[in-house]
Structures are given as structure tokens and as C-alpha cells.
Amino acid sequence: MPPAGLTLAVPFHSGLAYLREALASARAQTRPDWRLVVFDDRGEPPEAVAALVAGFREPRFSLRSNDTTLGMVGNWNRALDEAETDLVTLLHADDRLLPGYVETMLALAHARPGSAAMACHAAIIDAAGRASWSVADAYKRWLVPSGDPWVLRGEPGLRALLRGDFVMCPTVCWRRSLLGSRRFESGWRQVQDLELLARLLLDGDEIAGTRRAAYAYRRHSESATARQSESLLRFEEELALYDRLAERAASRGWPGAARVARRKAIVRLHLGFRTLGDLLGGRGAGARRKLALAWRGRGQGAGAGGGGETR
User: Fold this and answer.
1) Alpha helix positions (H), 89-232
2) Can you list the pairs that 294-300 forms with residues at least 24 positions away whose Cβ atoms lie under 8 Å?
3) How many of the other CB atoms lie within 10 Å of CB of 108?
4) Which residues are CB-neighbours of 228 under 8 A, at least 6 positions away?
5) Coil, strand or helix: which one is 83?
6) Is the dihedral of CA 52, 57, 61, 63 positive or negative?
7) Which residues are bridge partners to 153 per DSSP?
8) CA distance 144 to 53
9) Could you give the percent of the chain with pLDDT greater than 70?
10) pLDDT score of 278
11) What is the pTM assigned to this prediction?
């Protein structure tokens, strides 16, 4: 039986200043029953990472350095494998926890003992840590199912998730006893979180969430998400994953979820919104690329993901 409490696993590649903020936010938690492990993927000098972690003089902090760079998916999976508690959150190193995160997730885990994954709302911050807002974030929050806690299971759950991908991945607390040997799929660089959540639902598991905001997600130009959105890799992977999930849902006998996946409405809507921004900004070439990808997304075979970019 693993110890009680929650492991805050921090997969880290680069950005020492952000990592310092993430660690400080863990130490500010209102509940003490947590431990934190930094999984260093060798993007910064190892001695600098070790000095930063040790400088907190926090006995609940520890550091594990990879022998070689594993990449995002590999490092995330190592964190899941080596967490010391049943409950584990992959705290992204450029984000922050709000003070009640551990309290919120432990309460949700107790209320929904059959949930393999649990999530919360997130406040959005910018590079400087200031509150931020976007149309996409507001729209996804509107798509969250009613109730608190809200619950996803079966075909209705998958259908709801694919309509909006409203589960903010870094907020998720994973229950390893129900997750079993399932891990993030190698080969993806952007959608590995959505793929695993969808796989849980296809396998008959439950995902639960709360409308309470207990996490601060940082949007900034140096993140992998920002770079992969700009290069369109993000959208290519989303389109490819939706095609795969349409096939899996259909073979599972879930026609409604398969239909939502084939439409890819949320992906194409996001591409359309970015296309409008390009047009208003006089970036005609960028607009044409996005329109072409959105049109291609109407059919099958948007291309497979690959690689191991770190966030």
C-alpha cells in the first residue's frame, strides 16, 4: 500500500526562474501531506538545478536526474512510474499551484474513489504571472459539464471531452492504482494528455473534476504549446488523434462519440480563430496555411505525431 497524500512530480527541462516559482507554490500549500520530486531532463546545468532545489531547505523536496534526455513523454512517464504515492500530479515546471491545490485534489479523490484521473479549473497567467484571458479559454470553460464535481464516463463522457478538450492537463491528478500500466504514448509531442484521457474513457474508466480553480497555468511564447501552435504541429496532431479516436469509438459501438471526433469542430474552430487573427494582422501566408489545414481536417489522415519535445 503506497503512502497517503499526493506526489507533486515536476518534469523539468529548462527555465530555472519558473521552476523556482513552481517549487515556492508547492511549499505554500494549505495541506502538508504532499511530497515533491523534480525529474530533471538535463536541459539546464545539473548543478544549477540541484542548487535551486536544495536552496529551499524543504525536506519534502527531492531531485532525480535522468541519465540522458528522455523528452517530454519519457519524462512524464518516468514521473508516473516513480511517484511514491497512489495520487500523483505532473506539475509543469513553468506553472504554479494555487495554495489550495493539494487540499482540493485530495478532497476530490476521496469523493470520487472510482476516478482514474481528477482535474480542476485553472487560472491563466502570462509570462510575468499576471492574470490573462482568451476567448478559447472562456469557451472551453463554458463546455465543462454541469455539477461539482462533474464526471465523465462512457460514450457521453468521451463525446463531451472531444467537443471541447476542456480538461487542463497539468491540473490532472492521476490515481496510479486505477491507471495501472497505461502511460502517455510515445510518438506524440502535444496531444499525449488528451489521448490518455480518451483512452481511459474508452476503457471504461471515470474522470472527475471540480469547478474550483486550484492551479495557475502559464501561457508564454517559450512554451512547447506556443511553439507547436505556431508551427501548426499542435493542430496536425490534434487532427490525427481525432481521426484515430473516431475509429476507436466506432469500433467500440459509440457512434455519437465517433461522429464528434470526425467533425473535429473544436480543432477547426481554433484554426479559424487563429486564421482571423492572421488576416487582421496582415499575415496572409499564415492565414492560408491554417485554412488549408482546417480544410484538410474535414477528411481522414491528418498525419501522425512524433518526437519528444519538452515543455
Assistant:
1) 101-111, 135-143, 154-164, 176-179, 192-202, 224-230
2) 294/267, 294/268, 296/239, 297/235, 297/239, 297/264, 297/267, 297/268, 297/271, 298/264, 298/268, 300/243
3) 22
4) 189, 190, 234, 237, 309
5) coil
6) positive
7) 206
8) 36
9) 94
10) 84
11) 0.91
Please tell me the distance from the alpha carbon of residue 30 to that of residue 126, in angstroms, as a whole number: 24
Residue from 270, 281, 260 nearest 236 by CA: 270
C-alpha cell at 254: 459509440
Instruction: Provide the b/e sequence for 56-71 (b: ≥16 CB within 10 Å).
Output: eeeebbebeebeeebb
* 1: confidence class by pLDDT, cuts 50, 70, 90: low
Cα 109 to Cα 147, 174, 175: the distances in Å are 16, 9, 8
CA–CA distance, 9 with 31 (Å, rounded to integer): 17
Question: pLDDT tier at 222 (50, 70, 90 boundaries)?
Answer: confident
268: which 3 cell numbers?
Answer: 477547426
Sign, CA torsion 78/81/82/83: positive
Tally of CB atoms within 10 A around 123? 15
The stretch 129-158 carries a mean pLDDT of: 92
Residue type at position 90: L
DSSP E strand boundaries for 188-279: 206-218
The 10s digit of each residue's pLDDT in 83-137 is: 989 999 999 999 999 999 999 999 999 999 999 999 999 999 999 999 998 888 8
CB atoms within 10 A of CB 245: 26
CB of 76 within 8 A of CB of 191? no
